[in-house]
Amino acid sequence: EGTASNANILTFRDEDGEIVRTITAGRGYTLTYSRLDKKGNVVDSFTLQPTGSVQRVEIADDGSQTVVGTGTNGLVLFSTDATEVPGTETPLAVQYTGRIVYTVDPETGVFTLLSASGKELNICEALA
User: At the top level of its lineage, which domain of life is listed (predicted)?
Assistant: First the structure.
């Protein structure tokens, strides 16, 4: 769950009025991660306070997106997503403080993590 962001969003359009880039910057979201039991009850949780983040999204002509996140960013990848980062497998839930780059396929919705640097916190391990 993400709350309490003061994000500023800039949208850039091409000459035809199509959105080609967005930049979202600000304090970031206060993020609460929870582990649930089989009945959906919260077993354990923790909250991370943001230290600031910037997310730049480049939108290609085919609708695919390349996202560059810097600062504090959470990323959840499912087993249907992909990663090109050595030693990283899906599914994955990570809180990054640093820089991440990933793409989003508009047809399939598949996220592909291309690179990650900085400090990372594995959410599943932290809640185990």
Answer: Bacteria
Contact 119, 98 (CB under 8 A): yes
The DSSP secondary-structure symbol of 7 reads -
Helix (H) or strand (E) holding 110: none
- Do residues 94 and 122 lie in contact, with contact meaning Cβ atoms separated by under 8 Å? yes
* Torsion angles phi and psi, residue 95, rounded to 5: -105, 115
Q: Total domain count for the chain? A: 1
* Dist CA 86 CA 115 (whole Å): 9
Per residue in 91-100, pLDDT tens?
Answer: 999 999 999 9
**Looking at the chain, how many residues does it have?**
128
